[in-house]
Design brief:
The protein is mainly alpha-helical. It has helices at about 5-15, 30-40, 50-60, 95, 145-160, 170-175, 180-195; strands at about 80-85, 105, 110-115, 135. The protein folds into 2 domains: about 5-70, 3-methyladenine DNA Glycosylase II, Chain A, domain 3 (Orthogonal Bundle); about 80-160, Alpha-Beta Plaits. The strands form 2 sheets. A two-stranded antiparallel ribbon has the order 1-4.
Length: about 200
Amino acid sequence: MDAVARAELARKIDALLPQTQCRRCGYDGCLPYARAVAEGEAIDRCPPGGDDVIGALAALTGRPVVPLDTSCGTQGPLSIARIDEVWCIGCTLCIAACPVDAIVGAAKRMHTVLPALCTGCELCLPPCPVDCIDMVPAGRAWSQVDADAARDRFAVRNARVASPPRKLPASAKAALPTKADAVAAALARARARRAAAGTR
């Protein structure tokens, strides 16, 4: 099989994968695993896809159907991450770990998971220093629409992470207020409010 045929096969394999980007297969996402399968890697390494994906990959590649390799994990219903907001310290480590930007928050502020976007990959669990993230039943099945949207979010996130930080031109940097300027402006606003209220 030539390189073009392998690339087309990898694209078709990727279309069958659930796009949870969980890395349980041992690859950095669904597309790298799809490329490996096109090169001969086993078709039984996707716990989120389980038997259905194995069957679809077997039909596509002409290989025999085999049981799921449980060293990669076990198949189960969709679970999504939930952050215990009382314990969240706002470290942003889970945000950095999420492959599909399903966690929102800011440094030293409470984070939360957007349930409709969470793929259940569990990649946010290990970096959490206070163990405030649990996996809970999603109460729904993962669909092809979910998979397609997750693939798109994964690609956008990877492109953003890979792009170099934008540098401000010198003129824009000069226009930014200094910390001292910001404090002085805040004090001036407070004095103006007091004066308007008739107090000193």
